[in-house]
Amino acid sequence: MRDVLRPIVVAPMAGGPSTPELVVAAGRAGALGFLAAGYKTPEAVEAEVRSVRGSSSTYGLNLFVPMPPLRDVAAVERYREALRPEAERYGVELPPIRPADDDHFAAKVAIAVEHRVPLVSFTFGVPPVAVVRALHAAGSAVLITVTTADEARQALAAGPDGLIAQGGDAGGHSATFRPAAYRGDRGAAEVLAEVRAVTDLPVIAAGGADVPGLLRAGAAAVQCGTAFLLAEEAGTRGVQRAAMLSGESVETVVTRAFTGQPARALRNRFVDVYSPLAPVGYPAIHHLTAPIRAAAARRGDAGALNLWAGVNHAAARPAATATLVDQLLSA
């Protein structure tokens, strides 16, 4: 796997930012780009893999490990009721609660196997050993995202080729196995050191703006997402670009309000109102809030959008991916 890795990994960013163009541009700039399979149909994922495969030999695909069926349906029902004013505000209907959803996991694994994707990473848990073995048989290297040493030990039992140590300063969803207790208060350097202490496998640090520093600390690579949200090749929504470039001093917070899984986002009205009310419940809450977020996006209303971003979001700048890669390496 070490011969496939590059010092900078452009993080998989589900929901639009991770386009094939971004992945290809990352590869040409000497970085490693990841496609984000989350939320997409298998057909859409395969089309993106085909597109990137024809343009770059170095890329990855990120898959979401399916969550267990929803345990506390009643808590999500109460949250659904609390969201009714938002549905009325945006003129949408709240969908029925979906207690289980595997995001087409088996079909997406099959795509990775068929196309021999060079690197396949997993988020939200440990994939079955049989899945890891199938990917290995196809020639793929496997990475599992963790946030603690205990999670790392669980992941190692599946036989991956490396781990991604995600710090709490990273934007977007945390890969934590314990969403109810997660606070996002440990930085990338701390998590990297903790994970490296339990394995000799390559460990990628995620969530740090200090790329040279994390590489010196022993990271096999550094995974960056927020730094590429404003890249010319990224599919980031215009309303998020505007929010990040507004010049306003906006803090980030860890919230379950949008999806039921802890995620770091720019603080906005929705975060303030609904963070205290949101239970653990991914992906049921993701589906529940989706119509609200879609309507807000159509209006250009940042107040009800999941503006995923890391703590260093103010340093992000619009530029070509190649320029951003150079800047990160020389920071």
TrEMBL record:
InterPro entries linked: Aldolase_TIM, NMO
Pfam families according to UniProt: NMO
Keyword Lipid biosynthesis among record annotations: no
Reaction catalyzed: 3 propionate 3-nitronate + 3 O2 + H2O = 3 3-oxopropanoate + 2 nitrate + nitrite + H2O2 + 3 H(+)
Keywords: Detoxification, Flavoprotein, FMN, Monooxygenase, Oxidoreductase
Protein's UniProt keywords contain Flavoprotein: yes
Cofactor or coenzyme needed: FMN
Record-stated family: Belongs to the nitronate monooxygenase family. NMO class I subfamily.
Protein name: Propionate 3-nitronate monooxygenase
Lineage of producing organism: Bacteria, Bacillati, Actinomycetota, Actinomycetes, Micromonosporales
